[in-house]
Amino acid sequence: MMQRRWTFLSTDEKKTDALQAQLKVSRVLCGLLVQRGYDDFEKARDFFRPQLGDLHSPWLMKDMRPAVDRVRRAIAAREKILVYGDYDVDGTTAVACMFSFLASLTSFVEFYIPHRYREGYGVSQAGIDYAAANGFGLIISLDCGIKSTALVADAKRHGIDFIICDHHLPDPELPPAIAILNPKQKDCSYPCKDLCGCGVGFKLITALCAELGLPDQVYLGYLDLVATAIAADIVPITGENRILAFHGLKKVNEDPCAGIRALMRLADIRKEMTLNSLVFIIAPRVNAAGRMDDARKAVLLFIEKDEAQALAFAEMLHQDNSDRKEADSSITEEALALIENDPAFAGQKTTVVYQEHWHKGVVGIVASRLIEKHYRPTVVLTRSGDYAAGSARSVAGFNLYEAIHACREYLIGYGGHFAAAGMTLLPENVPAFARAFEKAVESSITPDQLVPEIVIDAEVTFSDLSIPLYQLISQMEPFGPGNMRPVFLAKGVRDTGHSKILKEQHTRFVLQQQEKIFTGIGFGMADQFCLLQNDAPVDIVFTLDLNEWNGTSSLQLKVIDCRPAAGNTSK
Question: How many other CB atoms sit within 10 Å of the CB of residue 52?
Fold first, then answer.
C-alpha cells in the first residue's frame, strides 16, 4: 500500500460568502471557484461560458506580420511549401491543420513528419535535405524548430526560408528564420504564454484567414484538432486554452473531422467526449503511430475527408496502439521483476533499468508505469544500434533535467525538461550512469518528493453531495492542469457492511456518514479494504461521478485514497 501525502488547498471564506450571495448556488461550488480565481460574478460567468470572441488577436504575437506576408508571397508565386511537424499528437494535429488549410489555397504544399528512430525529434537533416532536393522554398515548422539554429541556417544556405511555430522555451540564440511565432520569446507580448504547438499554428491560420478575408468558420473548423493537441500536450486549461478546449470539445461531439470520428467509432464511444477522453482514447492511438511505426499515417488520418478511407487509417492506428499496449505491458512486467530481484533497490532514491531487447517506442510509458508502482525518478533504457538509449520520468516537483545534466560525463547526448527527458550513452556506461544518477538525485530530492501527493480542494459531508452539485461541477469542464477535477475529503465515514473486493484488485465501497449512504469504486484499492473492517471509521478522498444504470442516474464516489479516521468521527 503506497503512502500518499494529503495536501489541502485553502479557501478565502469571505470571498466565498460574497460569491455565494451573488450566484445563489452551493457554497461548495463557490469555494471551488474562489480557489481558482473566479471570485466575482463576471469572472464566474466568463469561466462557465467561454466565448470565442474572447480569443486574443493573432496579431499580438511577435513576427505574425512577416509570417503572414511570407506565406502570402509563397502562395502568389506558386512556391513549394513544406509543412513540417513532430511525430506526437501536438505535432501531427498541427501539421494536419496547417496542411489542410494551405491545400485549400495552393496545390504546391506537402507535409513532412520525421521518423522517430531514423531522424529523432524535431527538425532533422534528412528533412532539410528532402526540402532542398525537391525545390521547396518555404518550410513551416510546427511544435519544433525553436532549438534548430544550425539546421535552419543550413536551410537558408539552400535558399529555403523558415517560419517556426513552436511553444518550447527558446535558447538565447534564435534560429535565422523569416519569422518565429512563439509566445515564450522574451520580447513577445502575446498574452497566452501556454499555447501548445498546434495552438500556435492555429493562430497563424487565424491571421491568414483575416488577411485573406476568409470567414471565421474556416479556422474554427480546426478546433477539434486543436482541442486534441491541448489535451495530449497537458498545457494549462486556463485563459485562451480553456476557450479553445471548450469549443473544440463541442466540435468533437457535434461535428468532428472524419479521422476523429473514425477513432471514436473503433473505440466504441457512446458517451459525450471530454478532455479526459481525448487524453486516454484518442491521444494514445495517435501517439502509437510514431511509437510503433510511422507517424505520417496520423496526419493522413486527420486530413482525410472520405469516411471509409479515414476508417482504414484509424484501423492502422488502432492496431499500432494494440501493439504498443502489448509491448508496454510485457516490458513493464519484466522491469518490475528486475526491480524486485535487486536487493539494493529498497534503499535507493531512483530506478534505472536496462534490457537490450525492449522496444524503444514504449520506454517512456514504461518509466511512468514504474513510477506508479515505485514512486521515484526513473530511467528506462534499451539498445539502439551501438548505443543504449532511453527515457526518464520524474516525480512531482523534482527537476529531472538537472539531475541528468549532472551525469553528462557518462552520456553521449541528452535533452528534455523538468519532468521528462531522453538520453543516449554507451552500453558499458549504463552502470556508471545509474550510480551517478542515484547520487545526483539523492543529494537534491526531499523526503516529501518521494511520496505522491493528493491535492484536496475541500472537506465536505455526505449531506453536501447531490446530483445538482455534480451537474454544476460538470459545467467546470474541461478539466486539466490549472483546472483539475475537484477532489473532496469526507471524514469519519463507516462501512455499511456491504463493501467488497472486485476482481481481486478493486474495492466497491458502500459508506455511511450520519444518515446518508453513498456507493463508490476505488480502482486498484483492494489492499485498502482491510481499513473498512471492524466498524472502524475512515477518512476518504474522492471525486464525484454519476452512475447510470437501467435508465436511472445516481451519484457515486470515485475513491482515490482512504486512511483511518483522524479527529472527531460521526456515526
Answer: 12
Q: What is the DSSP letter of 483?
A: B
Q: Which helix (H) or strand (E) holds 452?
A: none
Per the CB < 8 A criterion, the answer to whether 275 and 479 are in contact is yes
The pLDDT of residue 12 is 96
Please, are residues 110 and 82 in contact by the beta-carbon 8 Å criterion? yes
**What pLDDT, on the 0 to 100 scale, is given for residue 568?**
45
Distance CA 504, CA 333 (A): 18
Q: What is the pLDDT of residue 2?
A: 74
The answer to whether 275 and 245 have CB atoms below 8 angstroms apart is yes
CB 19 within 8 A of CB 28: no
Instruction: Give the pLDDT confidence score for residue 116 in this predicted structure.
Output: 85
Give SS3 for 548. Answer: strand
Low-confidence ranges of the chain (pLDDT < 70): 1, 567-571
CA angle 239, 232, 33 (to 5 degrees): 35
Closest CA to 454 of 6, 102, 78: 6
Of 440, 441, 470, nearest in space to 555 by CA: 470
What are the cell numbers at 456? 484536496
Strand locations in 131-240 (E): 138-142, 161-165, 179-181
Output the nine-digit C-alpha cell for 472. 454544476
Provide the grid cell at 563.
486512511
H or E stretch at 64: helix 64-76
Burial of 147 (0-12, 13-18, 19+ CB in 10 A): buried
- Note the pLDDT of residue 1: 62
Residue 513: enclosing H or E segment and its boundaries? Answer: strand 506-513
Q: How far is CA 443 from CA 321, 381, 395, 470, in A?
A: 39, 23, 15, 45
Contacts of 257 (CB under 8 A, 6+ apart): 224, 225, 302
